[in-house]
Amino acid sequence: MKKSKVTFADIAEYTGFSKTTISRYFNNPDSLTLENQSKIAEALEALDYKENKLAKVLANGKTEIVGVVIPNLYMHYYSDILNQLISTYEKYGYKFIVFTGNENPDAERKCIAELLAYNIEGLIMLSHTIPSEELKSYNIPVVTIEREDKFVCSVNTDNYMGGVQAASLLVKSGCDIIVHVNGDLSEEVPAFGRIKGFREFCESSGIEHRVILTDLGKNFEENHDRILRLYNELEETYPDKNVGVFMPNDTHANILLNIIFRQYGRLPEKYCIIGFDNSPISREAIIPISTIGQQVSVMADSAMELLVMQINERRKRKPTQIHEPVHKVITPILINRETTHLGRIR
Amino acid sequence: MKKSKVTFADIAEYTGFSKTTISRYFNNPDSLTLENQSKIAEALEALDYKENKLAKVLANGKTEIVGVVIPNLYMHYYSDILNQLISTYEKYGYKFIVFTGNENPDAERKCIAELLAYNIEGLIMLSHTIPSEELKSYNIPVVTIEREDKFVCSVNTDNYMGGVQAASLLVKSGCDIIVHVNGDLSEEVPAFGRIKGFREFCESSGIEHRVILTDLGKNFEENHDRILRLYNELEETYPDKNVGVFMPNDTHANILLNIIFRQYGRLPEKYCIIGFDNSPISREAIIPISTIGQQVSVMADSAMELLVMQINERRKRKPTQIHEPVHKVITPILINRETTHLGRIR
DNA sequence: TTGTACGCGTTATCAA
DNA sequence: TTGATAACGCGTACAA
Question: What is the number of other CB atoms lying within 10 angstroms of the CB of residue B1?
């Protein structure tokens, strides 16, 4: 085994060319004779050359690395997104250094500093503890996904549409009153659109409805408690009505479904449930749960597209041209499963 | 905004010291006067210096990056592991470049080549398409997690123990016959230990048992079909016996549970089910599923510990010292929930 | 078509 | 305690 790695210098020596020529072999092969090309190719084989991107980066600045800061990978939605981001490697060639932020702004700032130290070419933020104004101040290409995005480029699901779709499906399924449960969200986060879409659809079509904005807790037990309480209230308040519930995500929808199912031994006609995310649990539940699916792979691809665009622009323009942040909106997909009885006779 | 970044040269000029002294300020501050230290500290503030790790790497070779190749992030087990790996950043300071292999050996080789081009200090492999002998040949620190590991260091769950625990719990729960379903695994993969542990426990304690080694399919629909068929067979074959089933993972356990639950409106006494992984679905199922949990955070930490050990060793020794690969084994944890009726009167 | 010389930002090795 | 200088491996004017 060699002492250290094979470099252009070694190849140059071996072939009798200069380092420059070796460099050209990689970056501009056409400028060499075919004969010399194959000479060098042989040398690469013989010496078992491995490229050194770090040296390349120091010379030309292109790391081909983008940073990702994500709240956690425990929630399926996040790992799904990360999965799709990483899958764009084949298309865009960018590698990913991934950090989890765990809802801690200072930890996240430290992560970003680390990423900058590695000269990342761009940053994809899913964490939402650092305001977009601060993100902008780092002066590197940034794309956020499903979070506050006033000052930077972003990709979001059309949450408004999602709210409308959910409400609409519940109504079509024959519900007399439809309920949307969600956190007490800021108007700036994309998910707020769901509340708005739900509410406006109901108001404009005169449906009896209710929006319950409340924290459902941080873990499964808390979730279960709060949702059980919610269920009891619905049972009391609407004993004779068909109730449709649009839950904030599939995990919560599933908890509600299980509570009802254990109570009745089935999902009675009077209840409809719809979740959000199209996560595995929605399909694996005791009854497949209707849900609104975010087009995660489209979102990941759009995010990279937006990021690469910014990266390329930044290479061309001399001064950092200021342009308005681009916000891409991805349509969600309604997935009609068995917890909504579309087509039930009213 | 400055043309480009602030470097040691700028700080040197600003303070009147040499670049060397600036470097020392970071790497060996004690060798400077306190007075000069604070001078430099001020300059760093004034010029808003940001460190450049790439230049550092080129000079000293330490990237502080480890590569991770993981089959996918869609399965909760993998994203869970990745989550825990990334969380070790605070403890070990290593950053992670992550690739998904998607079961394609050549794609994985390409990923590894990319990682090597970035001078990663170590490699953590969860993908299992590339034999450990080949991994060893890359001559960098490697740790595998839950896969074939003959020639490299590894961290695995004590699957044998897991098999024993599952069988034992089913017996204690009053089952007359206990069944283990799993893929037709090679003896070299750690998960094979589960089959062995289950079987040997049953044989040594004279329990009626059956091991069914069969592929349960690649997606939810296939899983469901095969498991339904399995269930029908069990119903026919053991109409009058209490049957305990140890499924290969929680997703499959949940499918079986749902099939039975929908049939009976509950989980009848005659059936016990136990899964594997302690994934969210096991807790979110219509009845919380008993399962064997891998200690994922311990595994991730052990993996990094093993990797760092190798990295440090490699720095010291002149020739690449050959030493036998270390295989760490982590004890799984039995989680007794409601699909096993431990303590039921026999 | 090929080579020379220098720069990228840091660390390491001497020497002072 | 500090500094000058040479690496580290590659890209790129510019020259030939």
Answer: 6
Cβ atoms of B129 and B103 closer than 8 Å = yes
pLDDT digits (tens, 9 = 90+) for A309-328: 999 888 775 545 567 999 99
The CATH code of the domain at A65-156+296-330 is: 3.40.50.2300
Q: What is the mean pLDDT of residues A191-198?
A: 97
CA distance B63 to B116: 11
Q: What is the CATH number of domain A159-294+333-344?
A: 3.40.50.2300
A318 in reach of chain B (CB within 8 A):
no
Q: Which chain B residues are closer than 8 Å to A261 by Cβ?
A: 286
Angle at B126 between CA B121 and CA B129, to 5 degrees: 110
Angle at A281 (CA atoms; ends A189, B89), nearest 5 degrees: 65
The predicted model gives A239-259 an average pLDDT of 97
Ramachandran quadrant class, B171 (left: phi over 0; alpha: psi -120 to 50; beta: rest): alpha
pTM greater than 0.85 (yes/no): yes
Out of A74, A86, A286, closest to residue B286 by CB: A286
Nucleotides of C under 7 A from a protein CB: 1-5, 7-13
- Do the two domains A65-156+296-330 and A159-294+333-344 of this chain adopt the same fold? yes
Q: Taking 70 as the threshold, does the pLDDT of residue A31 lie above it?
A: yes
Contact (Cβ atoms closer than 8 angstroms) between residue A145 and residue A187: no
Q: Is A129 exposed, middle or buried (0-12, 13-18, 19+ CB in 10 A)?
A: middle
CATH topology of domain B1-47: 434 Repressor (Amino-terminal Domain) (1.10.260)
Residue A83 to chain B, least CA–CA distance (Å): 5
Q: Locate tokens 């902008």: which residue? A: A136
User: For residue range B253-270, what is the model confidence (pLDDT) as tens digits?
Assistant: 999 999 999 999 999 999
Residues having Cβ less than 7 A from any atom in strand D: A 4-5, 7-9, 19-20, 23-24, 26-27, 51-52, 55-56, 58-60; B 16-21, 24, 30-33, 36, 58-59
| Extents of the domains making up chain B | 1-47, 65-156+296-330, 159-294+333-344
